[in-house]
């Protein structure tokens, strides 16, 4: 995995310009590349829920909604998957007169709301939205202040000398939308990344999954919290390569470098497409990636 800080530093190294101005430009190019890739690959999926209200048709979209995949309504032991209506004309035809039922059939997204037809006749039936989220910009630098204690079989992490709450959010709660990961550093830690679910205070956070019971409790480990791209972890370099293609095509006129990074990007896309299979949308296969050391690569091109 490569955190935002790692990607930013790599951009500076490969452009051979680590000035603040250039790295700030790189931040924008990296975020543009990240979001572009997520238009093709569906790994920024999320689920949220709501409850029906009796004789209420419209329900607010989730705050971080980008594109709906499925809407289901659970009535008792039955789960109904709704068909989407795509035009206002077709939706209005369905709603010539009010029809109420706890057996839903269609949904229509309009004006920031999900509308259900027939109109739910009962309250408290579960609505489940499966959708692509709007991905926030990568902005958080790696955080390494203090030490951590991670307990075998527990999701709770205790910090010492840390200021997690002030660094990431203003009040205790979920940080799932930030995609933060924590790595306790060897030799005390196991050097693996663990996703952070929520932050409770300056010195307490909760992981998405338990710290493995096969690991011993680790106290006083140095650590890194990094903000990670939502893109699949084995392909984080593609964000940098795409940013560098734009950089050497439009900002610094160097066609040779632009072409070289384009080749590396295309080969990486081919490998990711093969790896993900049905998770892709209209992406051409390009072959196997050329596993180059980017630092060696930078030295070899003039």
Question: Which features would summarize this protein structure in a list?
Answer:
single chain; 302 residues; alpha+beta; Elongation Factor Tu (Ef-tu), domain 3; 8-stranded antiparallel β-sheet; 4-stranded antiparallel β-sheet; 29% helix; globular; disordered C terminus
How would you describe this protein?
The protein is α+β, with helices and mostly antiparallel strands. The chain has three domains: 1-44 and 231-302, no CATH class; 45-133, no CATH class; 139-228, Beta Barrel (Elongation Factor Tu (Ef-tu), domain 3). The chain contains seven helices and 16 strands. It has helices at 4-15, 20-40, 88-94, 164-168, 237-251, 255-276, 294-300, and strands spanning 45-51, 58-60, 65-75, 78-81, 83-84, 106-110, 113-117, 126-133, 147-150, 156-160, 173-174, 180-184, 194-201, 204-207, 218-221, 223-227. The strands form three sheets. Strands 9, 10, 11, 12, 13, 14, 15 and 16 form an eight-stranded antiparallel beta sheet that branches. Strands 1-8-3-4 form a four-stranded antiparallel beta sheet, with no helix packed on it. α5 runs antiparallel to α6 (255-276). The two termini are 29 Å apart.
Counted up, domains total: 3
Proportion of residues in helical segments:
25-40%
By DSSP, the count of extended strands is 16
Let me know the average pLDDT: 88
SSE string, helices as H and strands as E = HHEEEEEHEEEEEHEEEEEEHHH
Using the alpha-carbon principal axes, give the shape: globular
Uncertain runs are 278-302
Calculate the terminal CA-CA distance, rounded to whole Å. Answer: 29 Å
């Amino acid at each position: 995995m490569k955190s935002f800080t790692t990607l930013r530093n790599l951009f500076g190294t490969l452009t051979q310009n680590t000035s603040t101005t250039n790295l700030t430009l790189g931040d924008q190019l990296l975020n543009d590349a990240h979001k572009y890739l997520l238009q093709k690959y569906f790994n920024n999926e999320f689920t949220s829920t709501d409850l029906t209200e009796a004789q209420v048709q419209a329900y607010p979209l989730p705050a971080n909604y980008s594109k709906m995949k499925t809407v289901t309504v659970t009535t008792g032991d039955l789960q109904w998957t709704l068909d989407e209506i795509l035009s206002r004309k077709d939706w209005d035809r369905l709603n010539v007169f009010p029809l109420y039922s706890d057996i839903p059939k269609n949904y229509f997204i309009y004006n920031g709301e999900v509308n259900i037809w027939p109109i739910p006749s009962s309250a408290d039936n579960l609505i489940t939205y499966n959708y692509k989220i709007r991905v926030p910009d990568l902005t958080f630098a790696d955080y390494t202040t203090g030490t951590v204690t991670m307990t075998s079989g527990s999701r709770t992490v205790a910090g010492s000398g840390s200021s997690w709450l002030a660094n990431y959010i203003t009040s205790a709660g979920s940080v799932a939308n930030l995609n933060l990961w924590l790595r306790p550093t060897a030799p005390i830690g196991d050097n693996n990344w663990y996703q952070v679910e929520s932050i409770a205070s300056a010195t307490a956070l909760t992981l998405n999954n338990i710290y493995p019971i096969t690991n011993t409790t680790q106290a006083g480990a140095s650590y890194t919290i990094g903000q990670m791209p939502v893109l699949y972890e084995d392909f984080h370099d593609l964000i940098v390569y795409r940013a560098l293609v734009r950089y050497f095509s439009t900002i610094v006129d160097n066609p040779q470098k632009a072409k070289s990074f384009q080749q590396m990007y295309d080969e990486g896309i081919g490998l990711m497409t093969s790896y993900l299979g049905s998770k892709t949308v209209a992406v051409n296969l390009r072959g196997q990636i050329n596993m180059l050391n980017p630092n060696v690569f930078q030295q070899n091109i003039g």
